Structures are given as structure tokens and as C-alpha cells.
Amino acid sequence: MILPSHFIARTKALTGEAFPLLESALQTDSPVSIRINRSKGITALQADPVLWCDSGYYLPCRLPFTFDPLSHAGGYYVQEASSMFLEQAVRAHVQSPVTCLDLCAAPGGKSTHLLDMLPEGSLLVSNEIIRSRSHILAENITKWGNPSVIVTQNSPLEAGQLTHMFDVIVADVPCSGEGMFRKDPNSIHEWSIDNVTLCAARQRRIVHDVWNALKPGGLLIYSTCTYNTEENEETVSYILHTLGAEALPIPVREKWQITGALEKDDPAYRFFPHKTKGEGFFLAVVRKDGKGRHENSHTPANRKEKRNPLPAAVIPHDIRCWLHYPETYHFELQGETIRAFPRLHDDAYRQIALRLRVVMAGISLGKMKGKEVCPSHALAMSVVLNRKAFPSYDLNREEAIRYLRKEAVVLPKEVGKGYVPVTYNDFPLGFVKQLGERANNLYPQEWRIRSGYLPTDSRELLSFLYAE
């Protein structure tokens, strides 16, 4: 790896005598790390833990994740270990249910992590401005299976119109990517001092534009994957002194080898790959000036509600039985799709749907097809699916790969006709419609494994779950 000369000079000035160690670390392979989804029943792995994340693990090698059915089942998420430090920020400062915005959320690592960490009763709004990336985000969140989430596709300025809506905003902002040089060598060629300056200006604009949506006394968790101070300490200083906030500390352990701020005296947390097992990362937590909770003032009085509630009498009883505790959900019809959303957050959903472009919310239960309802893939992925509502069939690995490629699968006749969730080692993968002699594969076309190649390396996460 050949580093840009200007990057070397600037980073040497920041790290001093430690720079040769950093430079040497950048020549090594990136560690492979994942977070397990305990809601799907994975409790622990026989692998080295990520010390600052209870559900994070390092794998000794990179698995062929595309061909691991548990990945498609939402059993785990492949995520860079340093960024899992978000867990410590939430643990330190969020103890009661909140409404949280993940502002720059795609592809979904921090959002799926937040769904695990936020106190029970919280609502997550996961936003991505780029349309194509917002659908990738929705896919990953759907696979994770938590219903207390809304995915939106809006700019920070549009989100900022939701005055005092959020108790917590997570802003993992676009940056110059210095901390990803080892993991993504292409980012080296995109780096320049001008790009650092451009990114710092963009980051301040992003935070400025969304600041109005944060409640007085609310928390902003700011992070980047870069080393320079312009995008890190100096941007945090801008937030503190221009927008009005105080920086908050996060308890850390010495063995984590986390570095503090390189500039300014405000609490900030840095990850360097020669000290911590991960990539470059920066995080700071600030509290917006003001105390107490203010009444939301974001509901436009002159706009009509866009939702089309489905009358209770129209909802077939068996559809209600598809979910655990159906009385805790609000059911509605959107076009042909029946959707369920937690009643606890119904008011917030209405407010957000009036202002933002909602990509998905809650759980898509299925589509109306005449008198029949075809269950959705999101229902199969949901952790609140009542699995007793359907007969299921467990596939072997070869069958699971065929299913995930959206190829034909054959179930035994004794399974019976109708909609059947197919599983792999008891992890739901999706639905088929059993017709007797054959079954229709209902796996989403756009999510299928496109590669016709089957790697000779058949390792999968199951070997770490059940290793003796």
C-alpha cells in the first residue's frame, strides 16, 4: 500500500512517534468481525469477542458470507469492529425509551446495532438520502427482524423540519475515509487535502441542517472513519460552540487501547489500527443545550393524513394470529399490502409519514390477492412471527442455496398445500407456496443470490455456533 505523501505528512504531525506503527498496521490484513442477532436465537460464538460490544466477534478468516444461509436469515451482520463502539455511547447515556434517528444509515450496520441496544419501547427512524442505498438499508433492517423501526429516504434538511422530534440522533457522516485505507484501497486514490476540506464543510452542514430535529437536552452521537482533526475534533468544536452543546464522556477500559482527542480538551474517542483490533474510527457524544422535553411542533395542520387504516372487521383473524401479541399492533392497508406497526409509536409514525418519504415501517404482513393474503418475506424475517401459525420445513444447505437463488425447491407431499416458511437449521429463510407436486419459491427476486458459482469453501457461521 502506497500512502499519499500529504496524508503521511499530516498524520505524522498528529501521531508523532507512533506513525511508523500506524503505517505498518495499514500494511496488514483487516480483521473480520461480525455482530450476532440474539433476537434470532444466536447467543454466543466460539470466537474472540469484540471487547466493547457484547454481540461482536472476530472471525479467524473471512467466510463466503454470500453463500451462508444464516447471513440471509438475519442471524448476523458483518460489521467493522471499531464502529461497534457506538454501543458504549448508548449504554452510557440512554437509559429510558427514546425516539432515535440514524441519519446517514445505509447500509445498516449502526441501525441494526441500535435496534439491539436501545431500551425496550424505543423507536428507530433509519434514514438514507440516496434512493438506491435506502433500499439496501431496508433489506438489511428487514432481515434483522425488529418491528420498531421506520426507514426513510430524506435529506438532513428535510429531517430537520421535524422540530424537536428526536431524543437521540446518530450521525455517522460521510467522510474522507482515511480510516478505511486498509479495508478499501480504492479510498486511497480518492483522498486529497481538498476532499478533507470539502468533507468537513459537508459534515457541519449535515449537523446544522438536522439540529432542529433534536430535542433540547437531546443527544447527538457524531462519528467518522477518518483520522484528521478537521473532520473530527474541529467539527465537534463547531457543534459545541456554534450550535450550542456540551461534550459528554464515555467510560472506557484501558485494555481497549482507545485513544482520546488529539486536539481540544473535549471528550472524544479514537481508534487506531496499531492499537485496537479494527479500522480507524472517531466518535463523540454531545448534549444539545436545554433541559426537559418540549412539545413536538412539527405537525403541519394543513396537510391531510396519508395513511389508509384497514378497518378491524376486514382483517382476517388468521392474519392477526401470524404475530405474537397482535393487540399491540395497528393494522393498515397500503395499496394491496397489509402492514402492522407497533401501537406504542403510532403517533410518531403519523408525524413522520406526513413529513418524510417512508420506504418501510413496522412489518409487511402480506399482499391481498382476492380473498387470499400472500404472506410477505418481511413476515418470515420478523422476530415477532408466530411460527405456530404455519407448518414449516427445514432445508439442507444445498436446498437452502437453491432457495436463496430463487430456484425451484421440492417439499415432501406430506407438508401439505399452502404457504410454508422454509428454514435452515431452524432459522427462517422465507416462504414457499406448496401446491402439491411442486412449490412456488417466494423469495424476493431482487434479494436473490445472483452468482451461479458455488465456492469450494463451505464454511459458515454454524461451525462457530456449534463447534465442540
Count of individual helical segments:
15
Kindly identify the CATH topology of the largest domain. Rossmann fold
Q: Can you count the beta strands?
A: 21
- Give the terminus-to-terminus CA distance: 39 Å
Largest sheet: 9 strands, mixed
Structural class of the helix and strand makeup? alpha+beta
CATH C-level label of the largest domain: Alpha Beta
Shape: globular
Number of domains: 3
Full CATH superfamily name of the largest domain = Vaccinia Virus protein VP39
Can you give the mean pLDDT? 93
State Rg: 23 Å
Percentage of β-strand residues: 15-25%
CATH architecture of the largest domain: 3-Layer(aba) Sandwich
Break the fold down into its secondary structure elements and pairings.
Blueprint: H1 5-15, H2 19-25, E1 32-36, E2 48-49, E3 56-59, H3 69-72, E4 76-78, H4 86-93, E5 99-102, H5 109-117, E6 123-127, H6 131-144, E7 149-152, H7 156-159, E8 166-172, H8 186-190, H9 193-210, E9 214-224, H10 233-244, E10 245-248, E11 269-271, E12 281-288, H11 317-320, E13 329-334, E14 337-342, H12 346-355, E15 358-361, E16 363-369, E17 372-375, H13 377-381, E18 393-395, H14 397-404, E19 418-424, E20 427-434, E21 439-441, H15 462-465
Parallel strand pairs: 5-6, 5-8, 6-7, 8-9, 18-19
Antiparallel strand pairs: 1-3, 1-4, 2-3, 7-15, 9-12, 10-12, 11-12, 13-14, 14-16, 16-17, 19-20, 20-21
Task: Describe this entry's structure for a reader.
The chain is α+β, with helices and mostly antiparallel strands. It has 3 domains: 11-95 and 157-288, Rossmann fold; 312-381, Nuclear Transport Factor 2, Chain: A, CATH 3.10.450; 390-447, Archaeosine Trna-guanine Transglycosylase, Chain: A, domain 4. 26% of the residues lie in helices and 23% in strands. The chain has 15 helices and 21 strands. It has helices spanning 5-15, 19-25, 69-72, 86-93, 109-117, 131-144, 156-159, 186-190, 193-210, 233-244, 317-320, 346-355, 377-381, 397-404, 462-465; strands at residues 32-36, 48-49, 56-59, 76-78, 99-102, 123-127, 149-152, 166-172, 214-224, 245-248, 269-271, 281-288, 329-334, 337-342, 358-361, 363-369, 372-375, 393-395, 418-424, 427-434, 439-441. Strands 5, 6, 7, 8, 9, 10, 11, 12 and 15 form a 9-stranded mixed beta sheet that branches. β18, α14 (397-404) and β19 form a beta-alpha-beta unit. It is globular. Mean pLDDT is 93; it is low at 292-307.
